[in-house]
Amino acid sequence: MSYGDRLMAIGDAWKQYQADPLRRRVAIGDGRSIDGAQPDLLWGLDFLASPEQLAAGEPVSWVHSYPHHRPYIDYAAMRRALGWRRPLEHLGFGLTRLLGHYRYRLDYRPTPAPIRLKPDELALSEHWAQQPFVALEPYIKTGAPPSKQWPVERFAEVARQLSRAIPVYQISAPDSPVLDGLPQIRPRSFREALAYLRAARLYIGPEGGLHHGAAAMGTRAVVIYGGFTSPLITGYDFQRQLTGGAEYACGTRRGLCPHCAEHLNRISVAEVVDAARQLLEQPALQRSASA
Ligand SMILES: [Zn+2]
After folding, report:
1. Rounded to the nearest whole angstrom, what is the distance from the C-alpha of residue 255 to the centroid of ligand 1?
2. Rounded mean pLDDT of 176-191?
3. 0.90 cut: is pTM over it?
4. Distance 38 CA to ligand 1 centre (A)
5. Of 26, 71, 86, 271, which is most buried with the most CB atoms under 10 A?
């Protein structure tokens, strides 16, 4: 389950809705049926079409995004690399497995998802926002490519150094290990994580669902990329992306890629701490009342 992909799809839908002179609701899916993943994110998002509205014949525009079919992946280039002439649309996952890596569409740009928080989530967020703090996630999600994991002990050192000036909380799933005695935020759901991220002055962590979540909440972030994904396709301009000098994003799904390991290794603790301090000195971003 990928909250990052879902947030990007909702962001794409929002951008498309705003650009549509007919203001049609936007359906996210395969052009025929609506993708029902992560329905918890959709609360209050009236610009998105529901399956019922689609079935009732309401005119919609489509964002084509569903598992193994994402707008930032260049499936045509991957088919060419495998020597396939025909699309074989249903083999989206097989394509990645056979080739062993993604090819990216480097002309894709993400839009922050306009996620709306519920009143109790906003109250939680407002309560935590009374004191400045940094939210730090050291771990990639279960099942993510290992080529996205910056060394956990470096995250711990970043937290140690920043903690002299501002509290740093580890924000992780309930089953993740505790990092080096840091105070903990253990959200019970992704939505609750969004409420904490909205309250945080800054998020620090790997490229993934929480950095998209921070973007959705209008929160600045230092995002550790390395060489797996390009900041061009999943980076937001009010956040900082650190690649360790990677000149291309390899998208290697299998094992730990030496290229990714090298570029992750080149990202120093000092670089992350400096980026964090620079962003903490900037004024908070303007955000809407609901998000
Ligand atoms: Zn690599």
Report:
1. 10
2. 95
3. yes
4. 29
5. 26
Asked if 212 and 3 touch (Cβ cutoff 8 Å), the reply is yes
Name residue 195's amino acid.
A
Provide the token pair at 97: 């497995």
Beta strands in the chain (DSSP E): 25-29, 60-64, 134-136, 168-171, 184-185, 202-206, 221-224, 240-242
Tell me the CA–centroid distance for residue 257 and ligand 1, in Å: 5
Cα(81) to centroid(ligand 1), Å:
17
As a whole number of angstroms, the distance between CA 17 and CA 9 comes to 12
| C-alpha 95 to ligand 1 mean position (Å) | 18
Residue (of 5, 12, 107, 105) closest to 62 by Cα position? 12
C-alpha 239/C-alpha 223 separation (Å) is: 7
Domains and CATH numbers, the chain: 1-70 (no CATH), 73-107 (no CATH), 119-281 (3.40.50.2000)
Residue 107 Cα distances to 31, 110, 230, 234, angstroms: 22, 10, 11, 11
Residues across the chain: 291
Q: What is the pLDDT of residues 160-170, one digit of tens each?
A: 999 999 999 99
Rounded CA separation 60/236 (Å): 27
In this prediction, residues 113-128 reach a mean pLDDT of 98
